[in-house]
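User: Please fill in residues for this 425-position structure.
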């Protein structure tokens, strides 16, 4: 197998007997992909449009891009990279045939999250010796929900429960425990055309009141203009504010629910947070109103030694002891490695080995044990160590910046990334 070939090569480099730079992964070892073409790829993010204000730009720095072959001849081909500079085209060599491109700022989306998730996908065809130009436009897949209470509401009621239901198996609930809840990002599914809002509250005088309302997306004039639909399907911003309703006598008779279905207006450019820079998603059963924890307070902790970015010279013969330590409270379910390098030869070697995106706990990664220790499922600790063999292989390929992203998922569904940058000058 090709992975085994590269491990032998790395061992030989460590012993000083060969150089891996002569191994072009598109040569005889890639004979099944002998015919190839070039793809010039740009990744963009499209914000929802408004008829009232100009839309904010969204930067795609850090978006994760994956490309997979769809044909029988190229079905084993896959590659990935992370966008480094917004608007900059990426030049890639791909086997001829049909491929699917997927780009996102977060590789995993669940029903309720604390961040917006942008996703884009596109099918392309690569022809022999032809340069293909294409762009993948990412759109918001989830919708923002904002809850607000007027000052008079807070002064009037002592307890309340707000329930927002989209007819799925999970509803959103807010209570008096947090009078200033954070916005959440909700994934509408199953062709949701209507949401219901219900509130039950008790005044400080002990009077119980209830109110309910239903809202449709079709009432909104703001949306992605190329999506002609009445369904909530991502990009919506639903803002709900509660106020007490009073009779002329001053007695509280109910609650007014004021809801605007519109998109966020912001004239400033914004950077969408990406997976390695944001809090873990809000999972089922979590309280969306709780303030964000420090990243090291979560169920998965990542530490670096000596640092997250390490630089060496290509002529070095001794190397630093670099490692990434994972402390996984609920046990490791999987740990994937993604490699993105600006050294074309090394990047192609990673493509040839199909190592990027590999789960290091799987049987497919077994041969990598010759280079570094591998994690075991259900264990609570793991150290990814850059040993002499890896350093020797990197220096053999010459100057380059190599980013290793380690995505850990625990048995409770929590995900956290560790990113290590190795620079060879």
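Assistant: Residues filled in for all 425 positions:
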């Amino acid at each position: 197998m090709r992975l085994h070939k590269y491990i032998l090569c790395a061992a030989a480099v460590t012993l000083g007997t060969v150089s891996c730079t002569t191994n072009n992964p598109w040569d005889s070892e890639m004979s099944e992909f002998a015919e190839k073409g070039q793809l010039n790829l740009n990744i963009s993010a499209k914000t929802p449009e408004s008829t009232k204000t100009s839309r904010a730009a969204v930067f795609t720095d850090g978006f994760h891009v994956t490309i997979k072959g769809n044909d029988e001849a190229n079905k084993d081909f896959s590659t990935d990279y992370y966008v480094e500079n917004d608007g900059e085209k990426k030049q890639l060599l791909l086997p001829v045939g049909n491929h699917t491109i997927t780009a996102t700022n977060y590789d995993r989306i669940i029903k309720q999250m604390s961040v917006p998730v942008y996703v884009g996908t596109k099918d392309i065809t690569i022809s022999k010796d032809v340069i293909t130009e294409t762009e993948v436009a990412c759109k918001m897949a989830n919708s923002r929900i904002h809850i607000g209470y007027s000052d008079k509401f807070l002064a009037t009621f002592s307890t309340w429960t707000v329930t927002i239901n989209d007819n799925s198996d999970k509803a959103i609930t807010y209570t008096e425990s947090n009078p200033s809840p954070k916005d959440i990002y909700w994934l509408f599914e199953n062709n949701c055309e209507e949401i219901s809002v219900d509130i039950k509250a008790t005044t400080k005088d002990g009077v119980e009141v209830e109110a309910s309302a239903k809202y449709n997306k079709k009432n909104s004039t703001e949306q992605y203009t190329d999506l002609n639909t009445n369904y909530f399907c991502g990009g919506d911003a639903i803002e709900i504010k509660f106020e007490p309703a009073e009779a002329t006598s001053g007695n509280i008779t109910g609650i007014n629910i004021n809801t605007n279905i519109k998109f966020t207006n912001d004239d400033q450019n914004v950077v969408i947070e990406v997976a390695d820079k944001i809090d873990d998603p809000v999972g089922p059963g979590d309280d969306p109103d709780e303030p964000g924890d420090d990243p090291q307070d979560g169920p998965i902790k990542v530490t670096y030694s000596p640092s997250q970015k390490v630089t060496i010279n290509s002529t070095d013969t001794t190397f630093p002891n670099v490692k990434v330590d994972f402390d996984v409270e609920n046990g490791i379910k999987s740990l994937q490695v993604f490699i993105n390098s600006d050294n074309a030869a090394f990047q192609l070697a990673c493509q040839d080995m199909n190592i990027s995106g590999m789960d290091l706990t799987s049987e497919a990664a077994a041969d990598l044990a010759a280079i570094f220790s591998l994690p075991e499922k259900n264990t609570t600790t793991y150290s990814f160590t850059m040993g002499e063999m890896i350093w020797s292989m990197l220096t053999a390929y010459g100057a380059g910046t190599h980013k290793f992203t380690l995505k850990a998922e625990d048995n409770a569904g929590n995900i956290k990334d560790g990113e290590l940058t190795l620079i060879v000058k």
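For context: The chain has four helices and 26 strands.
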